[in-house]
Every structure is written in C-alpha cells, then in structure tokens.
Amino acid sequence: MRMNQLHRCIAVAIISFFVYLMLWWSAWKPESGDGNLGAGVLRKLERIPSCHGGERNVAGACILSESGRCLPTFLIAGAMKAGTGALMKWLNQHPYLQSGMNVARQTREVHFFDRPDFHSLHCPMQSYLESFPIGVLTFDKSPSYMAHPEAMQRAADMFPDIKVVVLLREPVSRAYSGFMHNCRHRRYARIFNTTSSPSPSYIVNMQDMSRSDERTLTAEMAAAKRALLQPDTHQVLGKGCTPADFREYMRSLGAFDNSTGASSVFNRRELQIGEYARQLEAILSAGIPTENILILFQEDMVQDTPETLRRVENFVFAGLFPSSAVPHHSYGPRRRNGLPYSTRRWGWDWWVEVIADVFSPLAYAGLPVRGSGAYHSSTMHDATESALRNYYRPHMRALAALLENKFQVKLPSVYGG
Q: Exposed (0-12), middle (13-18) or buried (19+): which is 100, by Cβ within 10 Å?
C-alpha cells in the first residue's frame, strides 16, 4: 500500500515538474507588434554574392547554397570588459537571434575581422559564413574589433550595410576589470633585472608581447621578450593579482605623470581600449553611418537590462520578447550563472541547468553575471584611480563632444567628461 502511495507521489511530482516547464516555456514566446520578425527581415540569396563582399543588403542574408547559413545582421564590436559577454548571453536567449562561433577555438567570440591572416584568405565571405548558424538573425560578438586598427574598415568593406552595437564602460573601472580578467587567465609576467629595463622589475602582458611584430620591437621590448624565454628572469602572475600589481602595470604603461619612460617599452593597447572617441571616429571613417551604430552604456545595462535589450531588438528589427521574461534587477538575475535557460536547447546541458536551478539552494541567491566585475575581491588604490582619471579626462571630453554632435547621446556623468 505504501509503495503504491510512493509511486503516486513520484508520478505527481514528475507531472508537476513538466507542467511547470511548459508554463515557463510559454512565457518566452515573442510578442507581436511592429518589431516582430517578419518575412522581409530574413533575406535569402541563392549564393554568396562575392568572395570579398562589398554589395549592399548582404548583412543578415541567408545563403541557400550553404544550407541556409545566415551572415550577421550586426556586430557587437566592443568595448572589451564592458559587458559584451553578458549582452551576448542575453541576446542568445532570443528565439530569432544567435551569435556566431569561432569554429577553430570553439568560443563565442568569432574574431574574424581582426585575424592576422585576414588578407591572405582566398574567399573571406565563405570563411566568415562558416561561423554562423542556419535560419535566424545572427550576430558577431568580438569586442576587440573596435580597438583594432583595421577590423572595422574590413567589416565595412565586406558589409556596407552592417549594423554595429557599441557598449561602453567607464574607462577606469574597465581597465581594472580587464587587468583582473587577464590575471585570471595568467597573461601577465613580472620581468626581473633585465639589463635595459627601466626599473628593477615591471609587468608585461605576455599575449601582447607574443603578438608584437619583431621588426618594430624597441631594444627594451626585445629584452623583455627574451626574458620571457628564461625561467629565472620572469614570474607569471597567478589568479591572485593585487591592486598593487595593477598600479605597477599601469605605471609601466605610462598612465602616471611621473612615469620614467617605461611607456616606450610596452604596447599601450590596454590603456587605449578606453580611448573611445578615437575608436568611434575610426568606425565613422570606415563608412558606417551613424544610424547603423547603436551606442549603449554598461552602467545603463546594469540598472535596466530589459530596456537595453529592447533597444537592441528595435535596432536590428528582431521580434520583441515579453518584459516578464527578463528580470528587472537583471544584470545579476536570479538564475544559475546569472542567466535564464536557453529557449532553443533541449540537450544534456539544458537539463543540467534546469535541475540545478530547481534543486540548488544557491539558485536564487542573485549571483552576479560573470564578467560584470562583481567577482573582484578588492578595489584599486585611490592614487591609481586618480592617476587614471587624469589620464582619461581629455579622452572623455572628446567622447562627450562626439556623442552629442554625431549621435545626440549624452555621456553619463560617471565618465567624467
């Protein structure tokens, strides 16, 4: 008798669980309305129009000869560590949107227009198409594009009608977040006592050093690169980087007024990522019109994620998701890994997320989105922050003027423009 009651309880629990799932699923249907995805949004072409692009109305087209793979409608071009990963994950929950993938690396950052061998590709359009799925509006999230000297011009040459989403973040906090991110991936090394070093020790980005063109290396950079090959002359920084390490690295990049020439040694790329005005000017110079560029701010996305997603949906003419599908305190939504379940995935990892979210006591703890900067256990020194604000102040003034004159957008006061 007791066994029959147990079986009935288990059956009721299973049925209730599946009913809950179906009710949840129905809440994620796109709304109808002016922004709803229509037949005219997904364009179909019989073949790739040109190996090198350049034709108008190609962005977003699905190529029938390639089993319906769809070229991207828009790019998320930057900035790095400004919330682009969180935005991509949110947009990937939309039934009509899907990001591309770097097939070789198996990552969600395509990195096509900044690849070193771009000019040697026989048919760039064909290579690019292989990064995208079939039958949906696709997009390329590669936050390094905006700071790359050639990437946006390459994209504009291939897709004259491409749309670009630019997500900005206050540059001082972005620099600190970027440093801690690179530390977690063990990309920094402290160089000791090289003969031509400007100080007894200094920190370099090993990834940047490895990518440096040997023909353009200064004597100091060449010495640092040689030091990386000798285990007794350098130490790789681990995951526990400190604010003091960040201060030392920023000093080596020339962010302090009293830097002693160290800035000539290093690639200043990590500082230049926050020089947004110059990068936006380069996008405009590439021939991309202002109406095809959407400027967003990470700080606004933190405060009101649904509104940010609405703006992107309207910008690319995707169907609208119901507001109830996105929590309003949602940059750290109450879901495992900070994200709701995928609406298109029914495989093993989908069920792992469902089970973890239902049964884990941590599932509703409001964990922050990875990449939001909330995982930093310490803050930068006041002196470091002050020096960086002084460094970026003229760049923020230029950005404020550019946004107001070209985009009719006001720079948030936190940027100090």
A: buried
